[in-house]
Amino acid sequence: MAIPDNNIQIYQTEKVDDKPFHMHVTFTDEESNIDYRTPFMRCSSLELTSRAVPDVTSVNEWATMVMHEYFHGFQFKNDGYLDTYETITNTVLPDTLIALAACHGWYKESITQENDFLLKAIDANDIEASKAYIQSFFKSRNERRERVKKKLGIDIVALEQLYETMEGSARYIEYCLYRHFGNFNFSDAKWLYTVGRKYYYATGFNLLRLSDKLEIDYKYGIFKDVSIVERNLRILMSE
Predict the structure, then answer these.
(1) Are 233 and 208 in contact, with CB atoms under 8 Å apart?
(2) Which uninterrupted H or E stretch holds 11?
(3) pLDDT tens, 99-150?
(4) What pTM was estimated for this model as a whole?
(5) How far apart are the C-alpha atoms of 107 and 143, rounded to whole Å?
(6) Percent helix, strand and coil across the chain, each rounded to 5?
(7) Phi/psi at 136 (nearest 5 deg)?
(8) Are 139 and 131 in contact (CB under 8 A)?
C-alpha cells in the first residue's frame, strides 16, 4: 500500500513475521533465503521500537540503534570478515561468553574489574599512569582466560576478540552519532561504557576509546584481523 506524503511515496507492507519488534542483522547458510551469506537488516519503526523499549522516545535515539545494526552490515561486507566469524563461532558457540558471565561469579567479577581498569586508563592524565592500568587489565584478563581454559576446557580468546571488535565498534558508531546530535552528556550514558549481560559491548567500546587516546591506529585493519586492537595494546606495553 502506498501512502502519499507530498512528493514522497511511502510504502507499507505486511510484517515479515509475528514478532512485535526487530533490531538486528541476520544471515544464513541456506541458499534459498534472502539473507544467504550476506547481511540483512531488520529494524522496526520508531513507534514499534518505543513500544518494546519505552526508554527510546526520540528519532535521535532510534537512529543510533538503526546505525548500530547498519554498521554490522558494513562489517560483514568487508572481505573475509564473514569467513572469520563463521570459523570462530563454529569452534566456540556464540553464546559462550554470555553463559560464562551468567554462571560464574568469578568470571563476572573479573570482567567488571577489567572494564574498570580500561576506564581508569582512559581517564589517566599521563601515559605512564595509563600503562599501569593497562598492565593490570591484561593481568586480570589473562588470568580469567587461563582459568576458563584450565577449568572448563574452552579457549575463548578468539571469540572474545571477535565480539569485542564487532559489538564494540558498532557501539562506537552510536557514541559518535550521539556526539554529532549534540546535547550529549557522556557521564549520563553509563550504559555505553559499563558492562552488562553482553559485557563485550562495553569492553570492546572502551578498548577502542583507549586506542584513540593513545593514538594507536586500528581502523585500517579492524575487520581484517579481530585481534588487532588487543594486540596493538600488548605491543605498546612491551615497548
Answers:
(1) no
(2) strand 8-11
(3) 999 999 999 999 999 999 999 999 999 999 999 999 999 999 999 999 999 9
(4) 0.91
(5) 10
(6) 60, 10, 30
(7) -65, -40
(8) no
Tell me the C-alpha distance between 77 and 202, whole Å.
Answer: 23
Could you identify the residue written with the cell 576509546? 209
Domain positions in the chain are 21-77, 94-239
How far the first Cα of the chain sits from its last, in Å, is: 63
C-alpha pair distances (Å), 168 with each of 24, 148, 154, 219, 239: 15, 22, 22, 13, 26
Q: What letter does residue 187 receive in the DSSP assignment?
A: G
| Whole-Å CA distances, 190 to 2, 21, 29, 63, 144 | 41, 24, 37, 19, 24
Residue with cell 549481560: 197
For residue 94, pLDDT beyond 60:
yes
- Rounded mean pLDDT of the chain? 93
